[in-house]
Q: What sequence folds into this?
């Protein structure tokens, strides 16, 4: 296996092609020459085979489409900076397509898969504007929101770490970014790092002037002091819910119920993260275990928390 093979994240669909030194593509109505970077470029295997195999020179369109599709799958791949710059210099219509998709996805309610796609596109656009605080904020806030989306809890750790990474990038751009400090404090609490969360909240207090916001930050700070050093991070509990969801889908209702009831008995979790979604899932698990009384109790609590929780209403009708 060559180094190029090892770096290929999708060898079933792409092959890496190293352009000859000085190789040009030609763009625009005037066919302006653009030199290709001297890095391996991903080309679709189907396009290479249509040209006669690995020894052939791919056409300009095949190069652009290969780089564009590969980067959308793997925005943090090796040589991603060179790939993004190639799209900017030689295939600007692809970047316009990315930007249009981001705007479109901002305009409507979309499911988590589309949110993740939007965040992937933002990662690509940021390769060309690493100091664009607006892009970085969208990434930090987007991954945080995705991490706490109930159906995405099996991936909560990965999404929280991405949110933290982009939040820290924001602070590098502006150490007094209050939105970034607030977001990172929330993440610190979820991962159990209360001392760091408290430091961020105290710094926030020095930056803010709005009295109502200051009061909210002080309340959060007092809550951190009250909790002190929790014996486990809340992120572990969120992962536990994600695991229970997967067990429910696999029809292992007994273990799913056991995990959720263990959380129900955890005062720390219930005070910080109890939600209608959690209670609804608990009720569904108890129904599968023929515990109708326990299911009714959980589902009734879910509706008390969120009277508009549609899934709970549907499930409750079957109790």
A:
């Amino acid at each position: 296996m060559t180094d190029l093979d090892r770096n290929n994240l999708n060898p079933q669909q792409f092959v890496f092609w190293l352009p000859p030194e000085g190789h040009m593509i030609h763009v625009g109505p005037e066919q302006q020459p653009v030199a290709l970077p001297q890095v391996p470029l991903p080309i679709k295997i189907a396009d290479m085979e249509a040209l006669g195999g690995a020894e052939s020179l791919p056409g300009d369109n095949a190069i652009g489409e290969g780089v564009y599709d590969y980067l959308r799958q793997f925005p943090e791949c090796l040589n991603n900076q060179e790939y993004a710059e190639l799209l900017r210099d030689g295939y600007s219509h692809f970047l316009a397509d990315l930007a249009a998709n981001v705007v479109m996805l901002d305009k409507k309610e979309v499911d988590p898969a589309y949110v993740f796609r939007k965040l992937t596109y933002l990662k690509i656009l940021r390769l060309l504007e690493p100091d664009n605080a607006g892009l970085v904020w969208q990434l930090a806030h987007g991954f945080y929101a995705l991490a706490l989306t109930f159906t995405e809890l099996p991936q909560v750790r990965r999404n929280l770490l991405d949110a933290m990474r982009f939040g820290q990038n924001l602070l590098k751009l502006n150490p007094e970014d209050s939105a970034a400090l607030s977001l990172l404090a929330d993440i610190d609490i979820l991962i159990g790092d209360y001392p760091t969360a408290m430091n961020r909240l105290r710094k926030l207090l020095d930056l803010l002037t709005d009295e109502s916001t200051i009061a909210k930050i002080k309340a959060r700070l007092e809550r951190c002091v009250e909790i002190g050093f929790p014996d486990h991070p809340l992120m572990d509990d969120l992962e536990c819910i994600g695991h229970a969801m997967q067990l429910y889908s696999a029809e292992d209702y007994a273990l799913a119920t056991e995990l959720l009831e263990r959380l129900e008995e955890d005062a720390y979790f219930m005070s910080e993260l109890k939600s209608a979604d959690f209670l609804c899932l608990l009720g569904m698990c108890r129904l599968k275990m023929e515990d109708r009384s326990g299911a009714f109790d959980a589902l009734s609590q879910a509706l008390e928390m969120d009277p508009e929780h549609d899934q709970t209403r549907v499930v409750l009708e079957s109790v």
